[in-house]
């Protein structure tokens, strides 16, 4: 080994690493738009599963939406679900294999519109699963249409002049709704567009899996994210718009914890 190789090996020693990609993320390139929060959440999920050493015990469910190809990126057992039906499928898997850690990974159009019934009833029954809910206020994959979470006056492909509450109803705060249900044990709203928020989101995901191990009921994690393609903005502008518009309406923090049920 020459001197240069020795220096290189010394640099990459574990104690000198600032960041190392989790082994549970595959090397396949993400299909997500540049600047999208999905990739960050994927990484956090796999980091938590690796740190808890539950790769062989975890089953993820991704329905139709931007996350439809999540099985390409997560090196765990994954199952597809019909649009909106991930909580129903997760219920069946968890009841059949109660020793497994089961989570769903869903967008707002999927979870809060097409799958409203599955979401509400799974939460109300207290199924011992974890729901990861990405809220970007729009249908991302299918064309940028208005979702239940689209803000008042927010533009989309089906509301080009902005959401008119009188005609289209109010934005749905699904997380506040499920927090009231007796079957939920942990309900929180987080974000991933800044480092501090990323750290808090990771802690929330780890808590959810630990509560699932303790059979405490359903954990529901909303992650407010951007959709720069659907919002027709650059990633930087989308993050600013999220801060100024999404977060005032969808404030971050824990809505329900086992200690404060």
Secondary structure topology:
Layout: H1 3-11, H2 38-52, E1 58-62, E2 77-80, H3 86-96, E3 101-107, H4 108-114, H5 116-125, E4 130-135, H6 165-168, H7 174-179, E5 184-191, H8 195-213, E6 218-224, H9 228-231, H10 235-249, E7 253-256
Parallel strand pairs: 1-2, 1-3, 3-4, 4-6, 5-6
Antiparallel strand pairs: 5-7
Shape: globular
Instruction: Please outline the major beta sheet.
Output: 7 strands, mixed
Residue-averaged pLDDT: 93
Overall CATH class: Alpha Beta
Count of domains: 1
Low-confidence stretches: none
Q: Give me the Rg, rounded.
A: 19 Å
Spatial gap, N to C terminus: 60 Å
Describe the oligomeric state of these chains in a short phrase.
single chain
User: Judging by the overall fold, what is the CATH architecture?
Assistant: 3-Layer(aba) Sandwich
- Percent in helix: 25-40%
Number of strands: 7
**Strand portion, in percent?**
15-25%
The helix/strand class is alpha/beta
Strand order in the sheet with the most strands: 2-1-3-4-6-5-7
What would you note in describing this structure?
The protein has 261 residues and is α/β, with parallel strands linked by helices. Helix content is 38%, strand content 16%. Strand 5, helix 8 and strand 6 form a beta-alpha-beta unit. Helix 2 packs across helix 8 and helix 4 (108-114) packs across helix 5 (116-125). The longest helix has 19 residues, at 195-213.
């Amino acid at each position: 080994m020459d001197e240069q190789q020795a220096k290189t090996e010394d640099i990459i020693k574990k104690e000198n690493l600032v960041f190392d990609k989790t082994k549970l993320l595959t090397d396949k390139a993400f299909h997500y738009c540049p600047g999208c929060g999905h990739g960050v959440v994927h990484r956090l999920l796999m980091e938590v599963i690796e740190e808890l050493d539950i790769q062989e015990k975890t089953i993820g469910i991704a329905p139709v939406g931007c996350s439809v190809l999540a099985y390409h990126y997560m090196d765990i057992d994954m199952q597809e679900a019909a649009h909106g039906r991930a909580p129903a499928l997760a219920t069946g898997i968890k009841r059949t294999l109660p020793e497994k850690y089961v989570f769903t990974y869903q967008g707002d159009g999927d979870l809060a519109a097409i799958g409203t019934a599955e979401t509400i009833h799974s939460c109300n029954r207290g199924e011992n699963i974890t729901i990861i809910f990405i809220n970007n206020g729009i249908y991302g994959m299918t064309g940028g249409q208005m979702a239940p979470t689209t803000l008042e006056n927010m533009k989309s492909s089906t509301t080009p002049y902005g959401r008119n509450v009188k005609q289209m109803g109010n934005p749905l705060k699904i997380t506040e709704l499920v927090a009231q249900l007796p079957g939920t044990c942990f309900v929180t709203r987080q974000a991933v567009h800044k480092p501090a928020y990323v750290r808090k989101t990771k802690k929330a995901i780890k808590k959810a899996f630990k509560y699932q191990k303790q059979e405490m009921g359903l954990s529901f994690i909303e992650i407010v994210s951007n959709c720069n393609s659907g919002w027709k903005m650059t990633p930087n502008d989308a993050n600013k718009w999220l801060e100024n518009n999404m977060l005032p309406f969808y404030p971050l923090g824990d809505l329900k914890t086992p200690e404060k049920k």
